[in-house]
Amino acid sequence: MNRSCIAGTGGYLPERVMTNAELEALVDTSDEWIRERTGITQRHIAAPEQTCSDLADAASRRALANAGLDAGAIDLVVVATSTPDHVFPSTACRLVERLGMPSGIIAFDVSAACSGFIYALDVADRFIRTGGASRALVIGAEVFSRILDWQDRGTCVLFGDGAGAVVLEAGKEPGVLSTHLHADGRQTPLLNVPWGVSQGYERLADERGKVSMRGNEVFRVAVRTLGALVDETLEANGLARGDVDWLVPHQANIRIMMATARKLGLPPSRMVSTVAEHGNTSAASIPLALDQAVGDGRIRRGDLLLLEAFGAGFTWGSALIRY
Ligand code: UT7
């Protein structure tokens, strides 16, 4: 059976940077509070005309270039996003056209909020292992700035825009070793966007199309759940604490990330952290972090990586990868 190997990574962040100081002018917050409670110092915000597929397109081109592949070599595109260009077609289909991929390939979006990239990676890995695809483009892309209530200090300081992409290629090397996906729909009120198209557009008038979160409650569930997920992932692979080389976590909050690193028995220097510069870019945060650490040479071929995420749904998942 084939294994899925990472052939290339790419990332894209919009040019515009929004600092904590700018947020101080919008809501009752402070740079000190944001940094202490979240680790965030700035985030990138898409230009008004930039859409999800613009960000995904840029990240994808970089991932393809780093893999040394032409878009024509791809036979599967999976985009994880909660902020697509259209209700339909999928953002993945938009990319098929934009990147000039051949007609007839497989392309679809995955909806799993902040865990979306892990879900997309799992699906693409299964396609590759069973021979349904040989080269997959797996993308996390978000324009969360569009679904933030810029008067809600509990959420607007946390998120940013961006996209990250990974090219997975069928091979005989270890690559993706295991993936672990979970969901529990019972806690929707803690984290959601309360509006969706099937509720009708007249409902949008009351601003219900924005992120709503009971952050402190989400925080506690996230730390507990990610701890159990670390145990599950290590156990499934016969590994012990300290055996993993790098933690590449979803970048929601530095305190959640550090708790997971501690659970893994890793020092902070072995955790890839972009939360300070990017904020929480939801499904884009893991591939962006991965791309940064691969690009600056921290993550090297042969390293053992643990990717993990927790998000709305709740959804959560991990992937253990021999890079
Ligand atoms: O990525 C998907 C999953 N999402 C997450 O994992 C997010 C998880 N949650 C968190 O990261 C944290 O809970 C937050 C960063 C959202 C909040 O941090 P916290 O330490 O849990 O704060 P809190 O919600 O308990 O609020 C503490 C205080 C409150 O004031 P009072 O009631 O103590 O007077 C809040 O009203 O901080 C206040 N507060 C703020 N103050 C200044 C909330 N947001 C802000 C703010 N600036 N932006």
Automatic annotation (TrEMBL):
Pathway in which the depicted protein is active: Lipid metabolism; fatty acid biosynthesis
Location in the cell: Cytoplasm
Major place of residence: cytoplasm
EC code: 2.3.1.180
Domain Beta-ketoacyl-[acyl-carrier-protein] synthase III C-terminal: 234-323
Ranges for domain Beta-ketoacyl-[acyl-carrier-protein] synthase III N-terminal: 108-185
Keyword Cytoplasm among record annotations: yes
InterPro entries: ACP_syn_III_C, ACP_syn_III_N, FabH, Thiolase-like
SUPFAM superfamilies according to UniProt: Thiolase-like (SSF53901)
The entry's keywords: Acyltransferase, Cytoplasm, Fatty acid biosynthesis, Fatty acid metabolism, Lipid biosynthesis, Lipid metabolism, Multifunctional enzyme, Transferase
Family annotation (Pfam families): ACP_syn_III (PF08545), ACP_syn_III_C (PF08541)
Enzyme class, broadest EC rank: transferase
Catalytic-site annotation from UniProt: 114, 250, 280
Catalysed reaction equations from the record: malonyl-[ACP] + acetyl-CoA + H(+) = 3-oxobutanoyl-[ACP] + CO2 + CoA
Subunit text: Homodimer.
Family membership: Belongs to the thiolase-like superfamily. FabH family.
Entry note about domains: The last Arg residue of the ACP-binding site is essential for the weak association between ACP/AcpP and FabH.
Function: Catalyzes the condensation reaction of fatty acid synthesis by the addition to an acyl acceptor of two carbons from malonyl-ACP. Catalyzes the first condensation reaction which initiates fatty acid synthesis and may therefore play a role in governing the total rate of fatty acid production. Possesses both acetoacetyl-ACP synthase and acetyl transacylase activities. Its substrate specificity determines the biosynthesis of branched-chain and/or straight-chain of fatty acids.
Stated name of the protein: Beta-ketoacyl-[acyl-carrier-protein] synthase III
Protein's organism: Spiribacter onubensis
